[in-house]
Amino acid sequence: MASSEATDREHNKATARILRVLSTYVSEADDFGVSELNQRLGMTKNMVHRALTTLAEQGYLIRNKAGRYELGYRILELQNLAQAEPDFRALAAPFMRQLYELTGESVSLAVRADDFTVFIDAVETRKLGAWRTQIGPLRPLHASASGRVILSSLPDADVDSYIERRSPMRLTRPTGVMKPADLWRSIQNTRQRGYEIARRGANPVMVAAAFPIGDSEGGLHGVIAVGGPEERFDPESPRLAPTLHALVDDLRARTKLYAAESS
């Protein structure tokens, strides 16, 4: 009898450890290795490893290419099935507010609609020289930083097809006609950097940083962007860039649990 009670207590402790590990992922929306969880939770590495292995075997965690563990798709089973899955706007809303509070500049949210970009939400600054966003109207994919980020996520053949459909004479944007070679150069730069930096106008020069936001199936929900006058907004400054990218990564950790809506 005593042996049975001791076994039950040990099982309860093991279950509690597993739930502590899982709760860390749910609250932090990040990926962790064994050593980090060992230090964060005060559990031995052996305990952490057993908990991670159990959660991975059950599909609540997955091991990524870097050998670290992150939330798996089965975590969605823990949600209320009667509650509608949040859309991209709802997922991004708190992060848009945080980006606005961080930068003090306008933040926008865009999605693809066939060969066009449509802005579906925005938080605009009240400062002078704001980066303005028109919600609703369709804009060709090449004509905005957000649209070019969407193009950069497509296979090369799809980009070529887009250029052919638009034709060189129709690759227009607010600053003039864009040559196919210039569009390809922009796409390659965005792919290499992982996001787009765009500048337009003069006196003041406006700068925007646009980031792709992925979904659970390896596609895109859309693009989040923040922009303002170059004299007060530099998205690549050492002071701003780390926090800016950390917020975007937090949003990505959230959105990758959900499939994007069909455009």
Structure description:
This protein is 43% helix and 20% strand. The protein is of the alpha+beta class and 263 residues long. Strands 5-4-3-10-9-8 form a six-stranded antiparallel beta sheet, sandwiched between helices. Strands 1-2 form a two-stranded antiparallel ribbon. The chain has a two-stranded antiparallel sheet with strand order 6-7. The longest helix is centred in the first third of the chain and has 27 residues, at 2-28.
In short:
With 263 residues, this protein is of the alpha+beta class. It has helices at residues 2-28, 34-41, 45-57, 88-103, 145-152, 156-166, 180-193, 241-255; strands at residues 61-63, 69-71, 106-113, 116-123, 138-140, 172-173, 176-177, 196-200, 206-214, 220-229. The strands form 3 sheets. It has a 6-stranded antiparallel sheet with strand order 5-4-3-10-9-8, with helices on both faces. It has a two-stranded antiparallel ribbon with strand order 1-2. A two-stranded antiparallel sheet has the order 6-7.
Give the biggest sheet. 6 strands, antiparallel
Overall SS class: alpha+beta
Q: What's the tally of helices?
A: 8
Task: Count every beta strand, where a strand is a DSSP E run of 2 or more residues.
Answer: 10
Shape: elongated
In the predicted model, the low-confidence regions spanning at least 5 consecutive residues are none
Order of helices and strands: HHHEEHEEEHHEEHEEEH
Assign a percent range to the helix content.
40-55%
Mean pLDDT: 81
Strand arrangement in the largest pleated sheet: 5-4-3-10-9-8
